[in-house]
């Protein structure tokens, strides 16, 4: 290497090191700003007006792409069979808390705000909290969990027990009274199948977002319908009732306008809102809409089948029973073209003893039940010394 080449190489290394240092400094500054907001932000000013701590409470959060819900319940030690009778002390609702959709700072601000709102409504402080179960979409890896746990630890006192899971776990718990056993299928704006064995093994399928093919979700169904309208207009696909119905619903006069409408704001929830139009067309006999829904059923069933077989929930012969919790607007059983029912019919061919459950409580309640279960397990370990 010539002296000139060595000099250039050293300069490049110095620039790379400076760039890496700048990135580290920027990240540290961002984290410090977050911590400062948690400690000193106006969001917790309401605690100054609460004279005394209330009895212990639990917080359960269900955070998704569309909305975030926080439930506050009392932390009462009684048997698991009585868990359903725990009263809801307060409920708060906010927007999206999926960091993949809105960014980490916005997601954390939403989560912090919704927890503060719930505690404020029931007259409790953070020092009254015994456990928090935060179940949010976008938590797909242990590093995601640890990052959020570190952030929560900056907000709550050290005695508060903290649990971070994917939002699918809260949905499962809403149908199993806080027990992590069985499978949950969520099909709303997005979709995911998540399963747990009683010894703690877990598996998931789908839930990778629209770009990576969450077909069967509300977004997937509506996106295929929009594509079918464009194809019909171009002459690349069959005519379909979807054209008139979708244009009428959106107040558009031509398929060309549909392109502008779609890309003006291609948010997942905005697209997924067209699912009722697709269902209505299918119920009226439109073959294109009907095919889209049939394919969605196959996609949803295949996700469940994948995780159930991976964990052996159905037993070696496929005949063991297991709960299947079904959550999300796509699976609602209030239509003639019942997607959820068709998914069950499809799965029953493989798993004759599948036990479908449509929860009577929302996932945020399931998250609060999880917080109670996690807390009580550790409480009993401390009492029994084991």
Automatic annotation (TrEMBL):
Organism: Crotalaria pallida (Smooth rattlebox)
Compositional bias of kind Basic and acidic residues: 8-36
Stretches the record annotates as Disordered: 1-36
Annotated InterPro entries: ATPase_BadF, ATPase_NBD, Euk-type_GlcNAc_Kinase
EC numbers: 2.7.1.59
Residues annotated as domain ATPase BadF/BadG/BcrA/BcrD type: 59-371
Family: Belongs to the eukaryotic-type N-acetylglucosamine kinase family.
GO molecular-function terms, A-Z: N-acetylglucosamine kinase activity
Pfam families xrefs: BcrAD_BadFG (PF01869)
Protein name, entry field: N-acetyl-D-glucosamine kinase
């Amino acid at each position: 290497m010539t002296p000139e080449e060595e000099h250039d190489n050293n300069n490049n290394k110095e620039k790379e090191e400076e760039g890496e240092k700048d990135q580290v400094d920027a990240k540290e500054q961002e984290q410090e700003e977050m911590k400062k907001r948690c400690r000193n932000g106006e969001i917790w000013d309401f605690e100054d007006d609460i004279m005394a701590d209330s009895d212990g409470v639990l917080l359960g959060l269900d955070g998704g792409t569309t909305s975030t819900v926080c439930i506050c319940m009392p932390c009462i030690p009684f048997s698991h069979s009585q868990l359903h009778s725990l009263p809801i002390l307060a409920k708060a609702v906010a927007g999206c808390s999926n960091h993949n959709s809105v960014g980490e700072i916005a997601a954390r601000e939403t989560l912090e705000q919704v927890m503060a709102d719930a505690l404020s409504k029931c007259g409790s402080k953070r020092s009254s909290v015994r456990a928090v179960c935060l179940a949010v979409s976008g938590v797909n890896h242990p590093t995601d969990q640890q990052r959020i746990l570190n952030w929560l630890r900056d907000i709550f006192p050290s005695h508060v027990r903290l649990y971070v899971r994917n939002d699918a776990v809260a949905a499962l718990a809403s149908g199993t009274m806080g027990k992590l056993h069985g499978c949950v299928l969520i099909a709303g704006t997005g979709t995911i199948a998540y399963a747990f064995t009683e010894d703690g093994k877990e598996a998931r399928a789908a839930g990778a977002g629209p770009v990576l093919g969450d077909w069967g979700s509300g977004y997937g169904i509506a996106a295929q319908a929009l594509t079918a309208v464009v194809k019909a207009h171009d002459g690349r696909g069959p005519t379909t009732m979807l054209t008139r119905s979708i244009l009428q619903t959106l107040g558009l006069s031509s398929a060309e306008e549909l392109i502008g409408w779609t890309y003006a704001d291609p948010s997942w929830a905005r697209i997924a809102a067209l699912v009722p139009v697709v269902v209505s067309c299918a119920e009226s006999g439109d073959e294109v809409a009907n095919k889209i829904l049939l394919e969605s059923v196959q996609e949803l069933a295949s996700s469940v089948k994948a995780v159930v077989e991976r964990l052996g929930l159905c037993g070696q012969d496929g005949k063991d029973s297991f709960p299947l919790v079904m959550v999300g607007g796509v699976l609602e059983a209030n239509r003639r073209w019942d997607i959820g029912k068709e998914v069950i019919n499809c799965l029953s061919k493989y798993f004759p003893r599948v036990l479908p459950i449509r929860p009577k409580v929302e996932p945020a309640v399931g998250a609060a039940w999880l917080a109670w279960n996690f807390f009580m397990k550790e409480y009993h370990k401390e009492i029994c010394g084991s």
